[in-house]
Amino acid sequence: MCQIIPEILWRGLIINTTNGLSDILRRKISLYSGFDPTSYSLHIGNLISIILSIHFKNYGHQVFFLLGTSTSLIGDPSGKKGERSLMKKQDIFLYYRKIRKQLFKFSKTFKIPILQNNWNNKLKFLDFSRNIGKCFSIHSMLNKDSVKTRRLSLSFTEFTYQLLQAYDFYYLYNKKQCVLQIGGSDQWGNITCGIELIKKKQKTQVHGLTHTLLTKADGTKFGKTENGSNIWLDPNLTSPYEFYQFWMNISDVQAKKLIKIFTFYNKRSISKIINLHNSAPFLRILQSKIAKATTILVHSKKTFTDIYNINQILFNPKIKNLNTSLRKKDLLLFKKYLPCKKIILNSTTFNFKILDLLILDNFICKSKTEVLRKIKFNSLLLNMKTFFSDYVLTKKDLIYNHFLLIKKGKKNFYILYFQY
User: Fold this and answer.
1) Residue 261 belongs to what domain range?
2) For residue 15, what are the CA distances in angstroms to 29, 165, 183, 207, 263?
3) How far apart are CA 327 and CA 258, in angstroms?
4) Is a pLDDT exceeding 80 seen at residue 221?
């Protein structure tokens, strides 16, 4: 079997591995990657674990996705500065159903089974303390990074999280023959707990591998929109258009790193793409390749095609008159993928002061002051045309009698849909 380690190493995916991992990967093994359902959706940081799992699957290994409903009841302290609030059981199981649905797309495409760690629900405290807790010293548990940084504020509940994740590894070793756990670099302490438990209980060596976290060059968190929200995989939280545009707007430096992580192009292809990009950076070839690959992977090929067609229209400098240039099906695509607000008209009279319309429900702008400032600098366009602050909207401004397109800044578009 071909070695996967050199492949994921040049992609920049490996942060930590246990000694001897390369040796066991010469044969087919079973491994898993865990996801705790602690929010409505996975985000692009989680996508790295999914992509790494797919690499292992493509190299012939048996891969499992593990959804940690029971570990979510405790809460992972890794990467947290303060005490994590305990989640309600009903919320966790709601998140479980949503995230399982997201993982199912990858599960179905790449034949990766999804497991749920409900085996922890059957554990009894005294038995767990005797059989599992006995295998760990307080000294080793205190030396985990997730504990050291919060030694004075960490609750007993969060302190036990590493034992529960260790038990997951132990259980999957016994039931599914998993000899490798993969996860983000902040999970190294939890993963090594599982390795230690299996070594003591089963007298055998298993392994761990952690991948890079999604960060900027300065080490701060990367993967948020302009308004500070995460880039989610759920299309209801981050629209496919916003998802695509996120990748189109990353820097060249980021793109040269992330094309190795978020696409499956081989080394030779990526080298060609980078050289092509360098010859004409303004075409954003790197960004477009990443945007295409991730949008197809997370959403679908059709969704990518729709969004690509939208961009070809919105960023076409030759289009001057939308009323004559757009087809109705183009407007329907806009309505489907762009932020869209429906305005129901209860009167046959149609006239709106543009200033009032742009601050309606804070959908486009937050205040009249913001609107006036952006109009002054031509940062707001009505159907791709400039306008004055006292402009009054009439029916003749509507495209196909229903649509109004607002451009805000260089790349933000909104649809107002008037329903009679």
Assistant:
1) 240-314
2) 21, 20, 10, 14, 19
3) 36
4) no
Query: Using CB atoms within 10 A of its CB, is residue 259 exposed (0-12), middle (13-18) or buried (19+)?
Result: buried
Question: Taking a C-beta distance cutoff of 8 angstroms, is the pair 230, 36 a contact?
Answer: no
Q: How many domains does the structure of the chain reveal?
A: 3
243-302 pLDDT, tens digit each: 999 999 999 999 999 999 999 999 999 999 999 999 999 999 999 999 999 999 999 999
118 contacts 69 by C-beta, under 8 angstroms: yes
Q: Find the distance separating the first CA and the last CA of the chain, reported in whole Å.
A: 64
Distance CA 69, CA 67 (A): 6
Q: How confident is the model at residue 82 (pLDDT cuts 50, 70, 90)?
A: low
Report how far residue 142's alpha carbon sits from residue 201's, in angstroms, rounded to the nearest whole number. Answer: 21
Per the CB < 8 A criterion, the answer to whether 65 and 33 are in contact is: yes
Residues 100 and 37 in one domain: yes
In degrees, rounded to 5, the angle at the alpha carbon of residue 419 between the alpha carbons of residues 405 and 239 is 50
- C-beta separation of 280 from 287 below 8 A: no
In the structure, how many helices (H) and strands (E) does the chain have? 20, 12
Q: Amino acid letter at 86? A: L
My answer on whether 96 and 50 are in the same domain is: yes
Instruction: Kindly give, in sequence order, each residue whose CB lies less than 8 Å from that of residue 146, ignoring residues fewer than 6 positions away.
Output: 76, 77, 78, 79, 80, 162, 186, 189, 190
User: Do 86 and 205 fall into the same domain?
Assistant: yes
Final residue of a structural domain among 192, 211, 230: 211
Q: Is 320 exposed, middle or buried (0-12, 13-18, 19+ CB in 10 A)?
A: exposed
At CA 280, angle to CA 274 and CA 411, rounded to 5?
Answer: 100
